[in-house]
Amino acid sequence: MIAGEKLIIKEVSDIVVKKGDTLYSLAETYGTTVEKLKEWNLLSYDNIYTGQKLLIKAPVIKEVKKGDTLYSLAKKSNTSVEQIKEWNNLTSDTIKIGQQIYLSPSPESFTITVKKGDTLYSLSKKYGVTVVTLKKLNELTSNTIYSGQKLRLN
Fold first, then answer.
1. Across the chain, which distance is largest between two alpha carbons, in Å?
2. Which residue, 54, 60, 68, 65, is CA-closest to 25?
3. Would the pTM of this model clear 0.70, i.e. be above it?
4. Residue 3: pLDDT band by 50, 70, 90 thresholds?
5. Is residue 115 domain-shared with residue 136, that is, in the same domain?
6. Nearest-angstrom CA–CA distance, 116 and 50
7. Count of structural domains within the chain
8. Do the domain assignments include residue 94?
9. Element (H, E) at 36
């Protein structure tokens, strides 16, 4: 580090479950509770899977004020415009006063809508989740998925 240079530490808001992780061990590690982890990740059960993405802190939500832009919000929250667009399912850079914007991952950002041509295999490669995990998370008994279908990634 160069003298006078600022060290920026980005706070972790989501993690990928590793072999041996449990909700209890993750709650202990990140100073939260199992109940909060379940709430933030829309989990109704205690089982988690290797490769699963989990929020480890509450999502940060901001109401858009006059003068806010995706660029200014990204800069203030130490993230990128593309990340904010992904977390909020935005297709353009346009935001409106009063709109609620996630400035960190939301539970919904771990859900995708299947597009024409998608397969479990292509989605597993794109999102870094195994086909087996996708099938477990979505209670699929076959590899057949349909355009428009919602799939959980966590």
1. 58
2. 54
3. no
4. very low
5. yes
6. 28
7. 3
8. yes
9. helix 34-40
**DSSP string covering 89-135, please?**
T-SSS---TT-EEESS--GGGGEEE--TT--HHHHHHHHT--HHHHH
Both 42 and 19 in one domain: the answer is yes
Rounded Cα distance between 27 and 57, Å, is 10
| pLDDT per position as a tens digit, 76-94 | 888 889 888 888 878 899 9
- Is 7 part of any domain? no
Q: In this structure, is residue 71 part of a structural domain?
A: yes
Cβ-Cβ contacts under 8 Å for 77 (sequence gap 6 or more)? 60, 62, 84, 103, 104
Q: Domain limits at 121?
A: 109-152
Cα end-to-end span (Å), the chain? 37
